[in-house]
Amino acid sequence: MRTLLFTLLCFWQCSAQAANYFVKDKSCEAISEQLTIKTQMSLFQSDSEVKAQQDLRTEALFEYKKIKNSLAANSQIYVKERFVMNRDVNQESTSSNSIKKRLFYTAHFTPSKHCNENQAMSEATFIAGEHTFRILKSKEKKITILSNSDDRPAFKKFDSKLITSKHFFDTKFGQSTQEVTQLLGLHSLELKNESKRIRVYGRHHAFHFVNNQLVGYQFHLNLLPMQINNVLTLENKELKIKLSNDEIVEAATPIAPLQITALKKEFADVETAYYKSSDTEVDQRLIGLSQGQLIGEIAFNKHCIKSFIAKNDGNIDKNINTSLKLTSSSEDNISVTPCSEFLYKKADFIAKLKLFEPISTNNIKLSALANYFKQGHSWEFSGVKYNDPIASLAKLGNYDEFFDSVEFTSQYWNGYFYIYDGKLLSAELTSNDY
């Protein structure tokens, strides 16, 4: 890999750097045929997706230049790109290095003219992915581009990994959501209605609020389902519990029977499990505990989006279910409906859509979330449903089947459907207007 990157860097430095790249610029006019480059990369859960995207753009540009031989001075290249992540190995494991992913990249390069020079990007800027930042407004031909470093709370490490029966990472019962946010930063999941709210930090820590006051804390290794864990920022805490006698119990290490007894005296609910540490030894470890009032059910708007037409569909905005929202390090404003739909909202319309297999609620330890999905059903996309045959896509657009997926293109949406035994299981689609 190091040799390949060195070769690519040398190739760029030895080539003319006059070409400019344009994304989402509708003023570009094609002057020759579009060239499509597809590439992919395997990575683990702990690997940086941003770095992987940059490497795939690098590889695609290298292949494009090889085909084109050289780029003319001041040439304009319009680029349409799509990333699709497929997680396919050992999904249920809690170890970040045991979850393997495959990142697919498709780039369409079109030599163009009359592009808006105010939106021109150098090769380095395009590879860095700065065009994926949020374009907020255009004023006097100047485009204001902001990254995710705005005034909202940021993901951050807790200053303390320690909890007691009365304090949870420096928070305590009775504090407001604003006070908890100041201490813990940005949450990765929120399930709420007007009076009840649950916020999850990382993947394993839930804070329960009633009437804007913290009333309960919950830790569990199986707090959330795999489909949600896969899109959350991986920031799990090595939980340490300080008992009233000042003894420290660590969740990641074997726990003694006396420690379990002590924990049960100070916490409302304690759960352990046995782990095989060697061929002859088995350890008991803490996998869950809670304190205070836990919210078991949250009333919500049960409406699901079944049809996606254009970005200006008047029904989309008002019908989006906002009860359950996720936030990751690379995406924000992700709404999740109880009908197996992930809706990525950008600039007041749905920019990306993920349809996933029905979630099993048997092992979800966050009860309110389990009840949320129990009231939903499998996804439906403009008449095409979960487990329908691949051929059903023909009524919506064009598709090309290969391996375990189907590349789908239509007037409004492009992307991939993932398949098994000739049937549709899940999908990742991007709006053509985004």
Automatic annotation (TrEMBL):
Keyword Signal included in the entry's annotation: yes
Keywords in alphabetical order: Signal
Domain of life: Bacteria
Signal sequence, renumbered to the chain: 1-18
Protein's recorded name: Uncharacterized protein
